[in-house]
Design goal:
123 residues
Length: 123
């Protein structure tokens, strides 16, 4: 992959992660008015157990890692669990809004591919 293209994608992905991670704490992006009860129950469980805070922290740390290009390979692996969970959440509970989760997963895979040289010792 072209290093310049990877750098641009990495920084854009990092900024998006910081924004969406910060939204979990400051709620500056409004939630949809109408949500199915299953989504409300799921989100209530995540909020009551503070799991959503952990997801927000991981997103912010991963975003900063991608922006500053420090520990990006490690955070790309950690972020993959959040990406897969987002796709599965939307696939089963809110399929109409799955496009954002798919973009998250694709960008995460691009990050994994871009940092593949760091995984040679693991694999």
């Amino acid at each position: 992959m072209n290093p310049t293209v990877f750098k641009v994608i990495r920084v854009i992905f990092g900024v998006l992660l910081v924004i969406f991670g910060a939204n979990k704490f400051f709620n500056f992006m409004p939630a949809p008015e109408e949500m199915p009860e299953s989504i409300i129950n799921y989100m209530t469980a995540l909020m009551s157990t503070k799991t959503i805070d952990l997801v927000g922290i991981v997103e912010i740390v991963a975003g900063l890692a991608f922006i500053f290009n420090k520990y990006g390979g490690l955070l790309a692996i950690i972020l993959m669990s959040i990406s897969i969970n987002a796709v599965l959440f939307h696939a089963f509970l809110g399929p109409a809004d799955i496009y954002g989760a798919i973009v998250l997963l694709i960008l995460n895979i691009v990050m994994l591919f871009g940092y593949k040289h760091q995984y040679k010792d693991m694999l």
